[in-house]
Design brief:
Number of strands: 5
Shape: globular
Number of helices: 16
CATH class of the largest domain: Alpha Beta
Strand content: 5-15%
Order of helices and strands: HEHHEHHEHEHEHHHHHHHHH
CATH topology of the largest domain: Rossmann fold
Number of domains: 3
Structural class: alpha/beta
Radius of gyration: 22 Å
Strand order of the largest sheet: 2-3-4-1-5
Length: about 375
Protein backbone atom coordinates (compact mmCIF):
# COMPACT_ATOMS: atom_id res chain seq x y z
CA UNK A 1 0.00 0.00 0.00
CA UNK A 2 1.08 3.55 -0.61
CA UNK A 3 1.51 5.97 2.29
CA UNK A 4 -1.36 8.38 2.87
CA UNK A 5 -0.63 11.94 1.79
CA UNK A 6 -1.86 15.25 3.16
CA UNK A 7 -5.02 16.51 1.52
CA UNK A 8 -4.33 19.52 -0.72
CA UNK A 9 -7.50 21.44 0.13
CA UNK A 10 -6.92 24.81 1.77
CA UNK A 11 -8.95 25.40 4.96
CA UNK A 12 -11.08 28.14 3.37
CA UNK A 13 -12.02 25.66 0.63
CA UNK A 14 -13.17 22.97 3.09
CA UNK A 15 -16.84 23.99 3.09
CA UNK A 16 -16.88 23.85 -0.72
CA UNK A 17 -15.20 20.43 -0.60
CA UNK A 18 -17.77 19.14 1.89
CA UNK A 19 -20.55 20.17 -0.49
CA UNK A 20 -19.28 17.85 -3.24
CA UNK A 21 -21.59 14.91 -3.95
CA UNK A 22 -19.31 12.32 -5.53
CA UNK A 23 -22.18 9.84 -5.94
CA UNK A 24 -24.09 12.29 -8.17
CA UNK A 25 -21.39 14.43 -9.70
CA UNK A 26 -22.35 16.64 -12.68
CA UNK A 27 -20.81 16.19 -16.13
CA UNK A 28 -19.22 19.64 -15.97
CA UNK A 29 -18.38 22.14 -13.26
CA UNK A 30 -16.94 25.62 -13.66
CA UNK A 31 -14.97 26.71 -10.61
CA UNK A 32 -14.35 30.44 -10.68
CA UNK A 33 -12.84 33.02 -8.37
CA UNK A 34 -9.87 35.27 -7.76
CA UNK A 35 -6.53 34.10 -9.10
CA UNK A 36 -4.17 32.68 -6.50
CA UNK A 37 -6.66 31.47 -3.89
CA UNK A 38 -6.14 27.74 -4.49
CA UNK A 39 -8.60 26.79 -7.22
CA UNK A 40 -6.08 24.67 -9.09
CA UNK A 41 -4.95 22.74 -6.00
CA UNK A 42 -8.62 22.16 -5.17
CA UNK A 43 -9.34 20.95 -8.71
CA UNK A 44 -6.42 18.49 -8.65
CA UNK A 45 -7.62 17.02 -5.36
CA UNK A 46 -11.14 16.84 -6.79
CA UNK A 47 -9.86 15.09 -9.92
CA UNK A 48 -7.93 12.61 -7.80
CA UNK A 49 -11.10 11.83 -5.81
CA UNK A 50 -13.13 11.28 -8.97
CA UNK A 51 -10.51 8.85 -10.30
CA UNK A 52 -9.90 7.13 -6.94
CA UNK A 53 -10.96 3.47 -6.92
CA UNK A 54 -11.61 3.16 -3.18
CA UNK A 55 -14.95 1.55 -2.34
CA UNK A 56 -15.46 4.11 0.44
CA UNK A 57 -16.65 7.19 -1.45
CA UNK A 58 -16.60 9.40 1.64
CA UNK A 59 -12.87 8.84 2.15
CA UNK A 60 -11.74 9.68 -1.38
CA UNK A 61 -9.05 10.25 -2.39
CA UNK A 62 -7.63 7.35 -0.41
CA UNK A 63 -4.02 8.02 -1.56
CA UNK A 64 -3.45 4.26 -1.40
CA UNK A 65 -5.03 2.68 -4.49
CA UNK A 66 -3.22 2.35 -7.81
CA UNK A 67 -5.35 5.08 -9.36
CA UNK A 68 -4.31 7.60 -6.69
CA UNK A 69 -0.65 6.63 -7.08
CA UNK A 70 -0.79 6.91 -10.85
CA UNK A 71 -2.44 10.33 -10.62
CA UNK A 72 0.13 11.63 -8.13
CA UNK A 73 2.98 10.61 -10.42
CA UNK A 74 1.37 12.15 -13.51
CA UNK A 75 0.64 8.79 -15.11
CA UNK A 76 -3.11 8.25 -14.86
CA UNK A 77 -4.40 7.32 -18.34
CA UNK A 78 -7.89 8.72 -17.70
CA UNK A 79 -6.77 12.20 -16.72
CA UNK A 80 -6.44 14.84 -19.44
CA UNK A 81 -5.13 18.29 -18.60
CA UNK A 82 -5.40 21.23 -20.97
CA UNK A 83 -3.23 24.03 -19.63
CA UNK A 84 -0.90 26.50 -21.33
CA UNK A 85 2.84 25.85 -21.26
CA UNK A 86 3.20 28.54 -18.60
CA UNK A 87 1.08 26.48 -16.16
CA UNK A 88 2.37 22.95 -16.72
CA UNK A 89 4.60 23.04 -13.64
CA UNK A 90 1.38 22.95 -11.58
CA UNK A 91 0.45 19.48 -12.82
CA UNK A 92 1.40 16.26 -11.01
CA UNK A 93 4.89 15.28 -12.10
CA UNK A 94 5.43 12.06 -14.03
CA UNK A 95 7.70 9.44 -12.52
CA UNK A 96 9.82 8.63 -15.56
CA UNK A 97 12.38 6.65 -13.55
CA UNK A 98 10.04 3.88 -12.52
CA UNK A 99 10.07 0.82 -14.77
CA UNK A 100 6.68 -0.27 -13.43
CA UNK A 101 4.89 2.95 -14.22
CA UNK A 102 1.81 2.56 -16.44
CA UNK A 103 1.47 4.42 -19.68
CA UNK A 104 1.53 8.14 -19.00
CA UNK A 105 -1.85 9.86 -19.11
CA UNK A 106 -2.59 12.47 -21.72
CA UNK A 107 -1.68 15.95 -20.57
CA UNK A 108 -0.57 19.07 -22.33
CA UNK A 109 3.04 18.10 -21.53
CA UNK A 110 3.27 15.14 -23.91
CA UNK A 111 4.98 17.05 -26.70
CA UNK A 112 7.73 18.64 -24.61
CA UNK A 113 11.36 18.08 -25.56
CA UNK A 114 14.72 19.70 -25.04
CA UNK A 115 14.41 21.90 -28.09
CA UNK A 116 10.96 23.15 -27.13
CA UNK A 117 12.16 24.12 -23.67
CA UNK A 118 14.36 26.78 -25.23
CA UNK A 119 11.36 28.47 -26.80
CA UNK A 120 9.21 31.03 -25.06
CA UNK A 121 6.34 29.34 -23.27
CA UNK A 122 2.91 29.86 -24.80
CA UNK A 123 0.14 31.35 -22.67
CA UNK A 124 -2.80 30.06 -24.70
CA UNK A 125 -4.21 26.58 -25.23
CA UNK A 126 -3.94 25.72 -28.91
CA UNK A 127 -6.79 24.43 -31.05
CA UNK A 128 -4.66 21.37 -31.88
CA UNK A 129 -4.33 20.42 -28.21
CA UNK A 130 -8.05 20.93 -27.66
CA UNK A 131 -9.06 18.87 -30.68
CA UNK A 132 -6.68 16.04 -29.78
CA UNK A 133 -8.06 15.96 -26.25
CA UNK A 134 -11.69 16.01 -27.40
CA UNK A 135 -11.08 13.33 -30.04
CA UNK A 136 -9.52 11.04 -27.45
CA UNK A 137 -12.79 11.12 -25.50
CA UNK A 138 -14.42 8.94 -28.15
CA UNK A 139 -12.35 6.03 -26.81
CA UNK A 140 -13.62 4.36 -23.64
CA UNK A 141 -11.84 4.96 -20.36
CA UNK A 142 -8.76 2.81 -19.70
CA UNK A 143 -9.75 1.86 -16.16
CA UNK A 144 -13.48 1.47 -16.78
CA UNK A 145 -14.37 4.28 -14.36
CA UNK A 146 -14.47 8.05 -14.63
CA UNK A 147 -12.41 10.06 -17.04
CA UNK A 148 -11.61 13.65 -16.11
CA UNK A 149 -10.56 16.51 -18.35
CA UNK A 150 -9.29 19.61 -16.54
CA UNK A 151 -8.97 22.96 -18.30
CA UNK A 152 -7.23 25.93 -16.68
CA UNK A 153 -7.51 28.84 -17.10
CA UNK A 154 -10.66 28.53 -19.17
CA UNK A 155 -10.43 32.12 -20.39
CA UNK A 156 -7.11 31.23 -22.08
CA UNK A 157 -8.97 29.15 -24.66
CA UNK A 158 -9.04 30.73 -28.09
CA UNK A 159 -12.49 31.13 -29.62
CA UNK A 160 -12.00 28.15 -31.97
CA UNK A 161 -10.87 25.97 -29.03
CA UNK A 162 -13.82 27.16 -26.93
CA UNK A 163 -16.25 26.19 -29.71
CA UNK A 164 -14.67 22.73 -29.91
CA UNK A 165 -15.13 22.32 -26.16
CA UNK A 166 -18.71 23.55 -26.36
CA UNK A 167 -19.68 20.69 -28.68
CA UNK A 168 -18.49 18.13 -26.12
CA UNK A 169 -20.28 19.90 -23.28
CA UNK A 170 -23.52 19.77 -25.27
CA UNK A 171 -23.19 16.00 -25.76
CA UNK A 172 -20.79 14.77 -23.04
CA UNK A 173 -19.25 11.32 -23.58
CA UNK A 174 -20.18 8.64 -21.02
CA UNK A 175 -18.34 8.70 -17.67
CA UNK A 176 -16.52 11.90 -18.66
CA UNK A 177 -16.32 14.83 -16.25
CA UNK A 178 -15.16 18.31 -17.22
CA UNK A 179 -13.54 20.42 -14.51
CA UNK A 180 -13.16 23.94 -15.83
CA UNK A 181 -11.39 26.74 -13.94
CA UNK A 182 -11.62 30.46 -14.58
CA UNK A 183 -10.08 33.47 -12.85
CA UNK A 184 -12.42 35.78 -14.75
CA UNK A 185 -15.93 34.41 -15.27
CA UNK A 186 -16.86 37.41 -17.41
CA UNK A 187 -14.35 36.26 -20.05
CA UNK A 188 -15.94 32.83 -20.44
CA UNK A 189 -18.45 32.27 -23.23
CA UNK A 190 -22.05 32.41 -21.90
CA UNK A 191 -22.83 29.24 -23.84
CA UNK A 192 -20.10 27.38 -21.92
CA UNK A 193 -21.19 28.84 -18.58
CA UNK A 194 -24.76 27.73 -19.17
CA UNK A 195 -23.71 24.09 -19.61
CA UNK A 196 -21.77 23.86 -16.35
CA UNK A 197 -22.58 23.87 -12.68
CA UNK A 198 -21.04 27.10 -11.44
CA UNK A 199 -19.04 26.95 -8.20
CA UNK A 200 -17.58 30.06 -6.59
CA UNK A 201 -14.21 29.59 -4.90
CA UNK A 202 -14.12 31.54 -1.62
CA UNK A 203 -11.31 33.82 -0.54
CA UNK A 204 -10.02 33.44 3.02
CA UNK A 205 -10.29 36.17 5.60
CA UNK A 206 -7.00 37.91 6.31
CA UNK A 207 -6.04 36.09 9.50
CA UNK A 208 -6.89 32.67 8.03
CA UNK A 209 -4.84 33.37 4.91
CA UNK A 210 -1.84 34.65 6.88
CA UNK A 211 -1.98 31.68 9.24
CA UNK A 212 -1.94 29.25 6.29
CA UNK A 213 1.00 31.10 4.76
CA UNK A 214 3.05 30.92 7.94
CA UNK A 215 2.38 27.18 8.14
CA UNK A 216 3.54 26.68 4.53
CA UNK A 217 6.70 28.72 5.06
CA UNK A 218 7.63 26.64 8.12
CA UNK A 219 7.82 23.60 5.81
CA UNK A 220 10.36 25.31 3.55
CA UNK A 221 13.95 25.11 4.70
CA UNK A 222 15.98 28.24 4.15
CA UNK A 223 13.00 30.49 3.41
CA UNK A 224 12.85 33.02 6.24
CA UNK A 225 10.37 35.86 5.88
CA UNK A 226 9.28 38.32 8.54
CA UNK A 227 5.62 38.61 9.52
CA UNK A 228 5.69 42.24 8.35
CA UNK A 229 6.86 41.22 4.86
CA UNK A 230 4.28 38.44 4.67
CA UNK A 231 1.49 40.85 5.62
CA UNK A 232 2.70 43.50 3.18
CA UNK A 233 2.83 41.13 0.22
CA UNK A 234 -0.50 39.62 1.28
CA UNK A 235 -2.10 43.04 0.92
CA UNK A 236 -0.33 43.68 -2.40
CA UNK A 237 -1.68 40.42 -3.83
CA UNK A 238 -5.23 41.23 -2.78
CA UNK A 239 -5.49 38.48 -0.17
CA UNK A 240 -4.64 35.58 -2.49
CA UNK A 241 -2.48 33.19 -0.38
CA UNK A 242 -1.18 31.00 -3.21
CA UNK A 243 -0.06 34.06 -5.17
CA UNK A 244 1.63 35.39 -2.04
CA UNK A 245 3.47 32.09 -1.54
CA UNK A 246 4.67 32.06 -5.15
CA UNK A 247 5.77 35.66 -4.80
CA UNK A 248 7.71 34.98 -1.58
CA UNK A 249 9.47 32.01 -3.17
CA UNK A 250 10.33 34.05 -6.27
CA UNK A 251 11.64 36.96 -4.19
CA UNK A 252 14.02 34.58 -2.43
CA UNK A 253 15.02 32.83 -5.65
CA UNK A 254 18.39 33.44 -7.25
CA UNK A 255 17.07 32.53 -10.70
CA UNK A 256 17.24 35.82 -12.59
CA UNK A 257 15.58 34.19 -15.63
CA UNK A 258 12.48 33.08 -13.74
CA UNK A 259 9.43 34.80 -15.25
CA UNK A 260 7.81 35.59 -11.91
CA UNK A 261 11.06 36.94 -10.46
CA UNK A 262 11.42 39.25 -13.47
CA UNK A 263 7.81 40.38 -13.12
CA UNK A 264 8.18 41.13 -9.40
CA UNK A 265 11.33 43.20 -9.92
CA UNK A 266 9.75 45.06 -12.83
CA UNK A 267 6.55 45.81 -10.93
CA UNK A 268 8.58 47.21 -8.02
CA UNK A 269 10.32 49.63 -10.38
CA UNK A 270 7.02 50.45 -12.04
CA UNK A 271 5.36 51.35 -8.73
CA UNK A 272 8.35 53.46 -7.69
CA UNK A 273 7.93 55.36 -10.94
CA UNK A 274 4.17 55.78 -10.47
CA UNK A 275 4.77 57.15 -6.98
CA UNK A 276 6.45 60.14 -8.68
CA UNK A 277 3.13 61.33 -10.10
CA UNK A 278 3.60 64.11 -12.63
CA UNK A 279 7.40 63.68 -12.43
CA UNK A 280 7.25 60.10 -13.74
CA UNK A 281 9.70 59.33 -16.53
CA UNK A 282 7.27 57.16 -18.45
CA UNK A 283 9.65 56.39 -21.32
CA UNK A 284 12.30 55.13 -18.90
CA UNK A 285 9.71 53.14 -16.92
CA UNK A 286 8.42 51.40 -20.03
CA UNK A 287 11.95 50.70 -21.23
CA UNK A 288 12.99 49.03 -17.96
CA UNK A 289 9.83 46.99 -17.37
CA UNK A 290 8.36 46.00 -20.74
CA UNK A 291 10.09 42.60 -20.87
CA UNK A 292 8.19 41.43 -17.80
CA UNK A 293 4.84 39.65 -18.04
CA UNK A 294 2.40 42.30 -19.25
CA UNK A 295 -0.56 40.97 -17.26
CA UNK A 296 1.47 41.12 -14.02
CA UNK A 297 2.44 44.74 -14.67
CA UNK A 298 -1.14 45.67 -15.48
CA UNK A 299 -2.30 44.04 -12.25
CA UNK A 300 0.18 46.11 -10.22
CA UNK A 301 -0.87 49.32 -12.01
CA UNK A 302 -4.52 48.53 -11.44
CA UNK A 303 -4.02 47.88 -7.71
CA UNK A 304 -2.05 51.13 -7.28
CA UNK A 305 -4.68 53.10 -9.16
CA UNK A 306 -7.48 51.51 -7.13
CA UNK A 307 -5.78 52.62 -3.91
CA UNK A 308 -5.19 56.10 -5.31
CA UNK A 309 -8.87 56.42 -6.19
CA UNK A 310 -9.90 55.22 -2.73
CA UNK A 311 -7.59 57.68 -0.94
CA UNK A 312 -8.66 60.55 -3.22
CA UNK A 313 -12.27 59.92 -2.16
CA UNK A 314 -11.45 59.87 1.54
CA UNK A 315 -11.03 56.12 1.98
CA UNK A 316 -8.05 53.95 2.81
CA UNK A 317 -5.75 51.87 0.61
CA UNK A 318 -6.43 48.14 0.30
CA UNK A 319 -3.29 46.95 -1.45
CA UNK A 320 -0.52 49.35 -0.41
CA UNK A 321 -1.34 50.62 3.10
CA UNK A 322 2.36 51.13 3.85
CA UNK A 323 2.43 53.77 1.09
CA UNK A 324 -0.46 55.76 2.52
CA UNK A 325 1.52 59.00 2.83
CA UNK A 326 2.62 58.82 -0.81
CA UNK A 327 -0.91 58.05 -1.98
CA UNK A 328 -2.29 60.98 0.04
CA UNK A 329 0.23 63.35 -1.50
CA UNK A 330 -0.59 62.14 -5.01
CA UNK A 331 -4.34 62.35 -4.38
CA UNK A 332 -4.04 66.08 -3.67
CA UNK A 333 -2.80 66.82 -7.19
CA UNK A 334 -4.69 64.12 -9.09
CA UNK A 335 -7.54 65.21 -11.33
CA UNK A 336 -10.37 62.84 -10.41
CA UNK A 337 -11.99 62.76 -13.86
CA UNK A 338 -8.64 61.94 -15.47
CA UNK A 339 -7.94 59.31 -12.80
CA UNK A 340 -11.25 57.58 -13.53
CA UNK A 341 -10.51 57.71 -17.25
CA UNK A 342 -7.10 56.15 -16.62
CA UNK A 343 -8.78 53.39 -14.60
CA UNK A 344 -11.07 52.62 -17.51
CA UNK A 345 -8.03 52.42 -19.81
CA UNK A 346 -6.45 49.85 -17.48
CA UNK A 347 -9.63 47.79 -17.44
CA UNK A 348 -9.71 47.87 -21.23
CA UNK A 349 -6.02 46.90 -21.42
CA UNK A 350 -6.60 43.88 -19.17
CA UNK A 351 -9.18 42.52 -21.60
CA UNK A 352 -6.40 42.09 -24.15
CA UNK A 353 -3.46 41.42 -21.81
CA UNK A 354 -2.63 38.07 -23.43
CA UNK A 355 -2.75 39.36 -26.99
CA UNK A 356 0.69 39.30 -28.69
CA UNK A 357 0.88 43.09 -28.89
CA UNK A 358 4.04 45.13 -28.39
CA UNK A 359 3.81 45.57 -24.62
CA UNK A 360 6.37 48.36 -24.57
CA UNK A 361 4.19 50.56 -26.76
CA UNK A 362 1.15 49.76 -24.60
CA UNK A 363 3.04 50.60 -21.40
CA UNK A 364 4.31 53.86 -22.82
CA UNK A 365 0.77 54.90 -23.73
CA UNK A 366 -0.63 53.98 -20.31
CA UNK A 367 2.17 55.61 -18.30
CA UNK A 368 1.98 58.74 -20.39
CA UNK A 369 -1.74 58.88 -19.64
CA UNK A 370 -0.98 58.34 -15.93
CA UNK A 371 1.31 61.38 -15.93
CA UNK A 372 -1.52 63.46 -17.40
CA UNK A 373 -3.67 62.62 -14.37
CA UNK A 374 -1.54 65.04 -12.35
CA UNK A 375 -1.13 67.79 -14.96
CA UNK A 376 -3.14 70.97 -14.82
Amino acid sequence: MFAEQEKSVAPWMQALWDSMDFANFPNAILLHGQSGIGKFAFALELTKSLLCESTHVASRPCNQCEACHWFSTGNHPDFIALVPETHRRLLPHADYESDESPKKGKTARDDSDGEASEKKEKKNISIEETRNAIESLSIGSHRGGNRVILIYPLEMLRSDSANTLLKSLEEPPPNTIFILLADRLDRVLPTIRSRCRLLTAPRPDREQGLSWLRAQLLKMDGLKVSDADIASIYDEQGGAPYSVLDSLIARNSKDEKDELTIAIQASRYLLQSMSQGVRINWLDSAEKTHKAQYSYLLGAMQRWTSDLQAVAQGGGPRYYPKHLSTLKALSQTAKISKLHHFWRSLVQARRHENHPLASRVQLEALLSQYQQVFES
